[in-house]
Please model this.
Amino acid sequence: MKKDTIKINSSWRDFSVKNNILKNKDVDISSRKDSQSMNNDISKPIKLNDSSEVKRIKGAATPPSASKFQHNQKLIVEKFKKQSTKNMSKVQNIMYMSDYSYADLEELEQELSEQDEIKLGKFHQAIDMYRNLNPNPSKGSKFKLDLTGDRRLSGDFARIISKIAEDNSGNIIDGNDFWDMNKLISRVVDNRSIINCKSSRELESIIIILDSSPSCKSYARLYSELASISATYNDIEMYNAPNGRITHRYDTRKKDFVKFMNLDDLRNDASTWSYFKNRVIMFFGDNDGSRIVLNNTFKNKIYWFHTLQEDMIKYELKNYKHNSANLKVFPYVINKQNFIKAMKMIK
Model:
């Protein structure tokens, strides 16, 4: 892991907002006092009812173009990097609602199916929420995490990320983490040096998805600090997702959240996480993205750091089918103290 301190560009979030500015859609967080009793609500993850578990149907249809990315993390990252360019195509400009005319939009709509238009409309709604949260970002403004003041948050978060990555380790590769018995046995034949008999395991990147919709504006400070910590590690993929719908990815080179999707990605439901399979996802957001999050529990392990309290979350979970075996929900994660408590419960 690289551990260089990074300044994260503030263009994806309005970091200047004060806590409790915007009321949550379902719960008026701003009218509550953050009492000690409220903070204690996060002591345990929610115990999910096993009856909510639904088995995945064998042979369920997957978009042809999406399936080839689901089993190749490097291919996904490479694809997204190539599409994160300044010279966006006309179609991408229309998708991201920038530098296009209504004549361009009308021309594109003639080529879209009815289903494509629905997906484009939902994507535009997500882009609108993202733009309305911080319509005039200051490119020169940076957010710098106070690593001294938030050392515990940074340390605990890094430990959890490392543990989850280790638990989901993949193929054995050249390294220096443990003695490789196969190399030690082969040493008798090839006379290799003892110092070349160690290996490591390839760690699969953890996916972090942050809800940047207006209903989560009160938690922007917490999310921005988590984003800044996450940006210092190379085994994390990070995405900006208003109401759970992915619109931008974090580019480590540009140190900013950038546009990256094209029309094929939209058709393949990449914005609703279709490219992710057998991955570990940490989602930070409220219940506005419930359908997307819970649909993905059938093919991914998800840690949901929720903004609402337990009783409201349980009511929401009853409305959508999900695989409880792949879901851990931590209620009322609205500040650093509650997030640290939630991390202690991850085994």
User: Anything to note?
Assistant: The first strand starts at residue 8 and ends at 9.
